[in-house]
Amino acid sequence: MWGPQDDAESLRALHRAIDLGVNFIDTAQGYGKGHSEELIGRLLHERKENLFIATKVPPRPGVPWPPPEDADARQFFPASYLIEQCEASLKRLQRDYIDVYQFHTWATAFNEAEEWCEAMTKLKQQGKIRAVGVSVPDATPDNVIGSLALEKVDAVQVIYNLFEQYPRWNLLPVCQKLGIGVIVRVPLDESALTGKLTSSTMFPEGDVRRHYFRGRNLPAVLRRVEEIRKFKDDHYPAMSLAELALRYCLSHSAVSTVIPGIRSTAQAEQNTAPSDGRLFTTEELSLMNRFAWRKDFWHVEVDG
Length: 304
What we know:
TIM Barrel, alpha/beta, 7-stranded parallel beta sheet, about 40% helix, about 10% strand, globular
């Protein structure tokens, strides 16, 4: 989904990340049609550390993604399907249990549904999963709050970064109040916040960023990234742009972990460096409020 990748390089990157202290790995059944889970299964047999594994179950084939807000959960995530797919993930991971079993998308109407909750509770009781998670849709991160209030969900995976600051006004305070785990995804905005993209950047066929940065999107991103770069150079000249972006995410007190992609040993080293416990203060974070930018590049090309 993010361009060609060599299995051997992926495993080297994972090993290096663990050497550097990483103990949480997030994947999904849909990444390489289960191949990502299989690679992690190989890794687990080669390491002795206690590693926490999260994976995601996609909705049943043939339904729209993301689902409409009034969707019937039984059509998207039937109980028998959730259990069947969990068994398949366990087999690929070569493991007896999954630490966080996550829905890969969500609809607001799912909050009051009971069948999926009963299936997940059964999996918990059988010891096959430790926690229930929801990876919320990009543009509607708050639509899971009902399940949090009803104590049906233990962890939320959400887009939160220097651009997408919206969750800090609603979802993150709720999670913190209720003791819900928060997994931050896309902290580098599909690589935009690394500062490495240019007006001539081209993504290979099959790379999802080819669509994400289509048309006016890339120039609009580059303009805003330059504003952040100038801010960084003025306030934190020794930091890379990626480090600034990752430290921003880690500095919110509700955030449990951040999951930047790691495709090489070099990226493993770069992306784990900000995990040294040095966080931005409230005052420093407030200076970065100016970079907030709500957008939905997957579905809408930016204006201007």
